[in-house]
Amino acid sequence: MKKYLLIIIGIFGINYVVFSQNFIQCPPDITISCCQDYNDINITGDAADINISFNYFTHADLVDVDECRVGEIKRTWTGYNNVGHFDCDQIISLRRDHAFEGLINWPSDWAGTCEDAIPYSEPEYALGFCDQVGHTFHMILSDLIQMPVLRY
Questions:
Q1: Whole-prediction pTM value?
Q2: Tens digit of each residue's pLDDT (9 = 90 or more) over 29-54
Q3: How far apart are CA 22 and CA 24, in angstroms?
Q4: Angle at CA 91, nearest 5°, toward 85 and 94?
């Protein structure tokens, strides 16, 4: 690909301003936490901030991220100007910063009589954004009646 350079010569001296019309520079590759929003260009970088010779930019993402939001995004930036449009690629890596430590406070065991109300309580645990820990609660109430035992 050819590069076009513009050299400006001043009246009172020689000033060189190098201006590339068909070269785009991507924001640097970056690694962020899985709980951060990779769509937020304030976090990942914006090609418009470092390429003044383009009129506008678009980007397309090729996302390879698992259910824990860990993986990689290949972001292709395209800059448009009077010469045409030009691309570059940025790699955004998502990593998991904090693993679930398995600290669960389980409800206490309970024993009572038939007249007692059964207390409702759930396990308590601190979750991070990437953690996949959950629980369900299902109470089964049954009447315990002494059934005669038949022997043959």
A1: 0.58
A2: 999 988 889 999 999 999 988 888 88
A3: 7
A4: 145
